[in-house]
Amino acid sequence: MDWYQVVESRRSVRSYRSDPVPEEALARILRAAQLAPSWKNSQGWEVIVIQSREQIEKLGALLGGNPRGVDFRTLPVMLALVMNPDASGHKNGMDYYLVDAGICGEHIVLAAQAEGLGTCWIGWLDEAPVKRLLGIPEPWRLVMLTPLGYPAAQSEPRPRKAVETFVHKDRW
C-alpha cells in the first residue's frame, strides 16, 4: 500500500477481531513512533503496550461512557501514548508537547493502517483514573489511547470537507 492509500483508507475502528497482532507488525508500528519528529528532537514520549486481557477490560470499564465507544471484548492490544510536558518547548502560550504527541500519534495510526490494522484515537477520557491504572507518574500526561487490532468489519469513509473550503492562499 503506498502512502496515499494508507492515508485515504484509514478509518476510526471501534470493533475488532480477537486475532493477535503479530509481534513484527507491532515492532514496526513502535519503530514509526520512534521516528516521529519532535521539538529539538526531544522525543518526549513513552508508549505503553497493553496486551493483558485484565488490563484491557479495566480500561474498557474506565472508558465506558462514550456512546460511540470501542468494543473492548475482543480487542487484542491497546496503546497508550504518554508525553512529558517538560521535554518539549512552551512558547507564546503553546505547549509543544501536544504538537509532538499529535505527530507521534499519527505515525502510530498510519503505520498501523499500513500493516492492515485498525486504530481509533481516544482522547475523550478522564485522565486521572487511567493514569492510576497504568502507573503513569507525574508530570507525564496521557494524551492518547488507541485500540490496535484487525477490524471486525470495513467501514465506509465519512464525508470530508472539500479542500477549497479550508485552504487559503497567501492569507486568510
TrEMBL record:
Highest taxon above the source species: Bacteria
Domain Nitroreductase, chain residue ranges per copy: 8-62, 73-150
Residues in the signal sequence: none
Coiled-coil portions: none
Alphabetically ordered keywords of this record: Oxidoreductase
Pfam families: Nitroreductase
Database matches in InterPro entries: Nitroreductase (IPR029479), Nitroreductase-like (IPR000415)
One Gene Ontology term of the molecular function aspect: oxidoreductase activity
Family according to the record: Belongs to the nitroreductase family.
UniProt name for this protein: Nitroreductase family protein
